[in-house]
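To whoever picks this up:

The parser on our side crashed when reading a file containing two proteins. I've narrowed it down to the boundary between the first structure block and the second sequence. Both blocks are reproduced below exactly, byte for byte. First block:
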Amino acid sequence: MNADHIIQEIVNLPAEERRKVIDFVRNLVGQQFEEEQIKIAQKRIEEYDMGLEKAVHHEEAIRLLRKA
């Protein structure tokens, strides 16, 4: 099943079901973004701990972790 087929299936759903599916997909995208931000923050903290301070903004990494 390709993206066009999936989109057509969603479009053909009743309005309430379509809204639920779209909300679910948006939540998934948001979770993926947060997971990526956490990975980036963890990597920056590890680099900071290894003494690579020039390449790492420690405060930014901590902020990203707190935000997620």
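<<boundary where parser fails>>
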Amino acid sequence: MVSETVLGVLFCFFLPLAVAARFWHWYTFFKRGQKIKMIQAMQSEQNDD
């Protein structure tokens, strides 16, 4: 049987880790979307010439 202390430590360790991983995934996804929008805007500006 796993002690409550070990469960508490694992919970306190993995919960922020999961939150950080989810935030990092969202952050990189958002940045990639911004980069794609920027590239598309640059291409459309070049096409306008």
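After patching the parser it read the second block fine. Residues 4 and 10 are 10 Å apart (CA to CA). The longest helix spans residues 4-48.
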